[in-house]
Design a protein that fits this description.
Length: about 290
């Protein structure tokens, strides 16, 4: 039963990693943009929620409602006025620009909040648990996993059930042809990044409630997000959830065997999947 509990806890942890990765997968799937600042944007979102909680006295989940439009606006402007200028056949400019953005965000957060680790205030909800058969599962991990599923379902509905989703798919397939049909790729890309940062805000909430964070933890979150996206298959949203679960289970099993193996086990699982399926478990068909 101990191993069953370990695996279940790993699955729930995978929900957090899927939230880290969903925005990254969305942006890459639409505009083939690899955002090296993604992890730092998650940390920025956690600090934004912390500021709202501190200044306005709001509970973290209520503060998220105020953070979401702010993060959307920041993502929209970032893509519209900066990242759109880097898009093209050469993948190097967006990599360099987002790497520079990562450094800027880390130093800005360090200057504004110091290097001390922070955590969002917790309440009874964050420490509560429910009995599921012989297992006791934390309410917060369950909420995290449920939120990851809700985000992925919502993104799939957006993609395949709305006119905006059709514009996303058309622009992703051929931006030039889409522009001839009246679609403005620059605005579509900006909207996609805005939505990605809404997901980042949700991920930031759970990051801040479940663990400490400081200005330098962004790159580690980026690695988990990348690994989940690549395991699942680039551009596959459900694959991203599977990728997150694989990393989460590997980490909890590794920690059960030896606490020092927790992080290493997740990376080894990532490498093992790549050896068997270099393009991930659910790769999108070639354009």
């Amino acid at each position: 039963m101990i191993w069953v509990d370990t695996i279940v806890q790993g699955v729930l942890l995978g929900g957090l990693y899927a939230l880290f990765a969903a925005g990254l997968s969305l942006v890459f799937g639409i505009m083939r943009l690899v955002n090296l600042a993604h992890g730092d944007l998650i940390v920025m979102g956690a600090y934004l929620i912390l500021v709202l909680v501190t200044l306005l006295g709001l509970p973290p989940f209520v503060a998220l409602l105020f953070a979401v439009p702010l993060m959307f606006a920041f993502g929209w402007g970032l893509q519209k006025f900066l990242l759109n200028r880097t898009l093209g056949d050469d993948i190097l400019p967006p990599l360099l620009v987002t790497f520079g953005l990562s450094i800027v965000l880390q130093n800005a957060l360090l200057e504004g909040f110091s290097a001390d680790s922070q955590r969002l205030p917790t309440d009874a909800l964050t420490t509560a648990s429910v009995a599921v058969g012989p297992l006791n599962l934390g309410v917060m991990p369950l909420l995290t996993f449920a939120s990851a599923i809700a985000v992925i379902i919502g993104l799939n509905q957006l993609f395949y059930r709305t006119s905006l989703g059709r514009a996303f798919r058309a622009t992703s397939d051929d931006a030039v042809t889409a522009s001839l049909m009246g679609i403005k790729p620059a605005n579509i890309f900006a909207t996609a990044t805005g939505i990605a940062l809404v997901i980042v805000a949700i991920a930031a909430l759970y990051l801040g409630l479940r663990s400490n964070f400081d200005p330098n933890v962004g790159p580690a979150r980026l690695i988990y997000a990348f690994e989940a996206v690549i395991i699942g298959g680039l551009g596959s949203l459900w694959g991203t959830l599977v990728g997150g679960i694989i990393i989460g289970v590997a980490q909890t099993v590794g920690a059960a065997l030896n606490p020092e193996w927790q992080i290493l086990a997740g990376h080894l699982a990532f490498l093992a999947v790549l050896l068997v399926r270099p393009r991930g478990l659910f790769p999108r068909a070639h354009d």
